[in-house]
Design goal:
Helix content is 37%, strand content 16%. It contains 13 helices and nine strands. It has helices spanning 2-19, 26-35, 59-68, 108-111, 131-138, 153-163, 177-184, 205-214, 231-239, 252-255, 260-263, 271-276, 288-297; strands at 43-47, 72-79, 85-87, 143-147, 169-173, 192-198, 219-223, 244-248, 280-285. An eight-stranded parallel barrel has the order 1-2-4-5-6-7-8-9, surrounded by six helices. Helix 7 links the parallel strand 5 (169-173) and strand 6 (192-198). Helix 5 crosses helix 6. The radius of gyration is 22 Å and the shape is globular.
Length: 302
């Protein structure tokens, strides 16, 4: 009898192991939220990673943003003279490193010797990262919005394939829908593409509808500086259940004055307004820690 019970227990364990679903990674959960148009929480995007505490676009800033609970990073891509893809916003080295001159005229070997500066211009011990190293640091842990990458996306995509990180990427751009299909069509079944549309006047609505009809994107980045424009409120209704809405709260001209600095004193009137009135479910910020704390107070972030 004991032998029979043992065999039954063993079979049950085997069956459970075979039917058990693999645990989703954090990056997969965020990607699923995008793909399913899940509006139950707000996705926080850290602009150039955690640049307040570490140099912008550095591996240290990336890891810090991940540790604080950020869902997506916005990082910038440049290419060296010898074809190495690196993280840097500017086309030259002057502002953020101890070097100078155009990146496109400087080799990786030369850049690797430089040190990064923080946002106040102080020299640090941190180094310029390759895009490949950044992708590996983010793998399974967080989504990535690659900015300026469309200029050499064939090379970027090769790195994504090499590192197994195609599922991490959100690529964005301001080109018309037809141009996006022609230029990036071969990648659109693997990499999420998000259109960027400025919505200051009624004519701008049509660009959104063109994308909905042609590409059915999972999200739109909407830029808005005209406080009198009725388009943001109209698109909140038009996109509900069809695509998530992304707003940048970095600077006035991207969010009609509802920016991060004002959110320090009035988060409900800034971030809260974008969420509750305009339907934002993705917010890019220069104050990720403060935004996460605010969203958690409203049960809008894990």
């Amino acid at each position: 009898m004991k032998k029979i019970l043992f065999l039954l227990f063993a079979c049950l364990c085997t069956l459970t192991a075979c039917t058990e679903q693999p645990t989703q990674t954090r990056a997969e959960r965020i990607r699923e939220q995008l793909l399913t148009c899940d509006e139950s929480s707000v996705i926080v995007v850290a602009h150039r990673a955690d640049w307040r505490n570490y140099p912008e676009n550095s591996l240290e800033a990336i890891n810090s943003a991940i540790d604080m609970g950020v869902d997506m990073l916005e990082i910038d891509v440049q290419r060296t003279k010898d074809g190495v893809l690196i993280l840097m916003h500017d086309h030259n080295l002057d502002r953020t490193t101890t070097g100078s001159g155009d990146i496109a005229e400087t080799t990786w070997e030369e850049i690797a010797k430089l040190n990064l500066k923080d946002h106040q211009g102080n020299v640090t011990t941190y180094k310029v990262p390759k895009l490949e190293d950044a992708l590996l640091a983010c793998k399974d842990r967080i989504m990535i919005n690659l900015d300026k990458a469309d200029r050499y996306f064939d090379e970027v995509f090769a790195l994504l394939e090499k590192t197994g990180t195609t599922n991490l990427i959100v690529m964005k751009g301001g080109q018309p829908a037809k141009e996006v299909k022609e230029k990036f069509g071969q990648y659109l079944d693997k990499v999420i593409y998000m259109p960027v549309v400025t919505i200051n006047n009624p004519e701008s609505e049509q660009a959104v509808y063109d994308f909905l009809n042609d590409l059915k994107p999972v999200a739109f980045e909407l830029c808005w500086s005209n406080l009198e424009s009725e388009v943001p409120a109209k698109l909140e209704k038009a996109l509900k259940g069809r695509a998530l809405i992304w707003y940048n709260t970095l600077w006035d001209w991207l969010c009609a004055g509802h920016n991060d600095d004002k959110a320090v004193e009035d988060p409900d009137g800034t971030w809260g307004y974008m969420i509750d009135t305009l339907g934002a479910r993705i917010l890019q910020t220069d104050r990720p820690q403060l935004m996460i704390e605010y969203l958690r107070s409203r049960n809008l972030h894990e």
